């Protein structure tokens, strides 16, 4: 990040900075969004609709409208199977679940909620959808996860997974978004709803055990016996998220030497350490948010954490501390394709266009096809279902991979299996993932990678979205000849909303932020940290010139 690091970053949250949960929940029910204000409308980004009730971006009206729009969509597409619904531990998740159930029940939707009124990770919902659709010949199931991912405690989120089990694509979310906003504009006219107590007792609302099927199936995606037999000492920090109640059953079922360092759940997330900007954020790729687990690294061979809905992973090793997400993706790919003999010979590696180029080098060494896509896990769903992707991952610490037999596991990111994979690697190689990454760099070089933000207004962000190689006109980058300039992802020829410039020993990509007046610059050098700075400077100069033009 180019922004200044907050003086309290990495320190435990002071009481004065904790969210006022009663105030937040009151705002959810009492405040009304104004659909004439863009920031108060339903807006599905890459991970669903997100916002805070305090600024009228995530209130009961939003959830009622979205839920009815989803019911309409299901009828239109004849989706008559159950709707698997999970929530995380954010304070707004349970109120939003109550609102959604009132609508789902009134529309006669068969809903599957946790049988103990608990929390459900995103990958467990994806797993449940795929398991149901594989074993039932009737109507197709789909799902909802009520989560804002790793966002601060004041935020809420609502995302939809269609019958393929993965994140919904923009055609689906766009249709739901437009319908939901029409309901908001019409004062929720046409939204079917029953009282909450009636909804909870409705015959269409079913209690479902998400934990047991997921836990018992883990041996089909990971070598759990190798982890147990090697006695790998594992530390697990759920960061107060939805995976909290999953880890003890995993430990007991497989007899692994794992310790849950904290099972505390608190909607203020008072146990967290502040992120780089002084906010509470359950970002398991941030060294500031992960300070607690990093401090415990000497106690374990390997440790890991998940974000609040457990679709992301953060890996901490005794040898080196918190791993860069790109580094761990490269190690995971190198290990898996060497240790999964039943995967198809043609199974490819999926990566986002802003992920490290060391992944390209590993895939080439393995003889595996590399498929580079725009940002968003939705681009990997079809490949994981059919087994044409063995592994798919994002630079933001989200990934999934196939079962050991080469069939689909989940089509959404799964932070639990990526954490356990670190233990499997350690058990089967005798080296932790950081040490394995060191071996990769001795062969492929050391990558110096960073993402920074630079200012950009709305007009400039639109210019950035429309840039091409011709309009940017860069001939050199970091003192090297530019080999390629991309505005579409080479893996699927889809626009990624920005520009990527590639030289032999470095590259950069620039994309506008969807929520702030900045654009993001992802850059990497295989020479040095100074060369990385040169690439970043060249990138900002070229884009500033394009803004002037």
Characterize the structure shown:
With about 550 residues, the protein is of the alpha/beta class. The protein is about 35% helix and about 20% strand. It has 18 helices and 23 strands. The strands form five sheets. Strands 1-2-6-5-3-4-7 form a seven-stranded mixed beta sheet, sandwiched between helices. Helix 7 (about 210-215) packs across helix 9, helix 8 (about 225-230) crosses helix 14 and helix 11 (about 325-340) packs parallel to helix 12. The mean pLDDT is about 95.
Keywords:
549 residues; alpha/beta; five-stranded mixed β-sheet; globular
Tell me about the largest β-sheet: 7 strands, mixed
What spatial form do the alpha-carbon principal axes imply?
A: globular
- State Rg: 23 Å
Protein structure class:
alpha/beta
Overall strand count: 23
Residue-averaged pLDDT? 96
Tally of separate helices: 18
Strand portion: 15-25%
| Contiguous runs where pLDDT drops below 50 for at least 5 residues | none
Helix proportion: 25-40%
End-to-end span in angstroms? 27 Å
Widest sheet, order of strands? 1-2-6-5-3-4-7
Topology summary:
Layout: H1 21-30, E1 44-45, E2 48-52, H2 60-76, E3 83-87, H3 93-106, E4 111-114, H4 122-135, E5 142-146, E6 155-161, H5 170-185, H6 196-200, E7 205-208, H7 211-217, H8 224-230, E8 234-237, H9 244-254, E9 258-260, H10 291-295, E10 302-306, E11 313-317, E12 321-322, H11 325-339, E13 348-352, H12 358-366, E14 370-373, H13 381-386, E15 389-394, E16 398-401, H14 415-429, H15 433-444, E17 448-455, H16 458-465, H17 469-472, E18 476-477, E19 480-481, E20 484-488, E21 495-503, E22 506-512, E23 518-525, H18 529-548
Parallel strand pairs: 3-4, 3-5, 4-7, 8-9, 8-10, 13-14, 13-15
Antiparallel strand pairs: 1-2, 2-6, 5-6, 10-11, 11-12, 15-16, 17-23, 18-19, 20-21, 21-22, 22-23
Helix pairs in contact: 2-3, 2-5, 7-9, 8-14, 11-12, 11-15
């Amino acid at each position: 990040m180019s922004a200044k690091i907050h003086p309290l970053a990495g320190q435990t949250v002071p009481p004065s900075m904790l969210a006022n949960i009663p105030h937040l929940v009151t705002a959810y029910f009492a405040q009304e969004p104004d659909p004439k204000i863009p920031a108060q409308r339903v807006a599905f980004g890459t991970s669903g609709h997100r916002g805070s009730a305090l600024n009228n971006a995530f209130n009961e009206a939003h959830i009622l409208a979205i839920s009815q729009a989803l019911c309409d969509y299901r009828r239109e597409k004849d989706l008559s199977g159950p709707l698997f619904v999970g929530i995380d531990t954010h304070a707004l998740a349970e109120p939003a679940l109550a609102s959604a159930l009132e609508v789902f029940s009134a529309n006669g939707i068969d809903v599957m909620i946790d049988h103990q009124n608990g929390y459900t990770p995103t990958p467990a919902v994806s797993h449940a959808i795929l398991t149901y659709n594989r074993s039932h010949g009737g109507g197709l199931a789909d799902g909802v996860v009520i989560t804002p991912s790793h966002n601060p405690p004041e935020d809420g989120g609502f995302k939809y997974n269609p019958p393929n089990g993965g994140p919904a694509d923009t055609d689906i979310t766009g249709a739901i978004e437009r319908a939901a906003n029409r309901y908001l504009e019409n004062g929720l006219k046409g939204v079917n709803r029953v009282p909450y107590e009636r909804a909870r007792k409705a015959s269409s609302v079913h209690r479902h055990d998400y934990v047991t099927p997921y836990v018992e199936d883990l041996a089909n995606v990971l070598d759990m016996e190798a982890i147990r037999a090697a006695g790998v000492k594992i530390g697990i920090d759920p960061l107060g998220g939805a995976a909290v109640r999953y880890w003890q059953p995993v430990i007991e079922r497989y007899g692994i030497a794992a310790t849950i360092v904290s099972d505390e759940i608190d909607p203020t997330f008072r146990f967290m350490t502040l992120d780089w900007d002084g906010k509470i954020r359950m970002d398991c790729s941030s060294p500031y948010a992960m300070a607690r687990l990093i401090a415990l690294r000497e106690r374990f061979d390997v440790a890991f954490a998940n974000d609040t809905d457990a679709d992301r992973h953060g890996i901490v090793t005794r040898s080196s501390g918190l791993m860069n997400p790109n580094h761990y993706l490269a190690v995971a790919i190198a290990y898996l394709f060497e240790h999964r003999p039943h995967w198809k010979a043609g199974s490819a590696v999926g990566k986002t266009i802003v992920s490290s180029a060391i992944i390209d080098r590993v895939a080439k060494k393995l003889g595996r096809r590399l498929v580079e896509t725009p940002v968003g896990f939705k681009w990997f769903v079809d490949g994981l279902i059919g087994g044409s992707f063995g592994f798919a991952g994002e630079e933001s610490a989200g990934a999934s991979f196939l079962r050991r037999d080469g069939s689909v596991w989940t089509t959404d990111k799964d932070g639990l299996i990526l954490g356990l994979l670190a233990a499997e690697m350690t058990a089967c190689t005798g080296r932790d993932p950081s040490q394995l990454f060191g071996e990769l760099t001795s062969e492929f070089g050391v990558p110096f990678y960073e993402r920074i933000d630079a200012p950009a207004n709305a007009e400039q962000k639109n210019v950035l979205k429309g840039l091409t190689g011709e309009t940017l006109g860069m001939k050199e980058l970091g003192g090297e000849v530019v080999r390629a300039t991309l505005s579409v992802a080479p893996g699927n020829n889809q626009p990624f909303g920005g520009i990527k410039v590639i030289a032999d020993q470095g590259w950069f990509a620039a994309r506008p932020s969807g929520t702030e007046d900045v654009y993001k610059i992802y850059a990497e050098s295989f020479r040095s940290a100074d060369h990385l700075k040169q690439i970043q400077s060249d990138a900002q100069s070229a884009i500033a010139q394009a803004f002037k033009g």
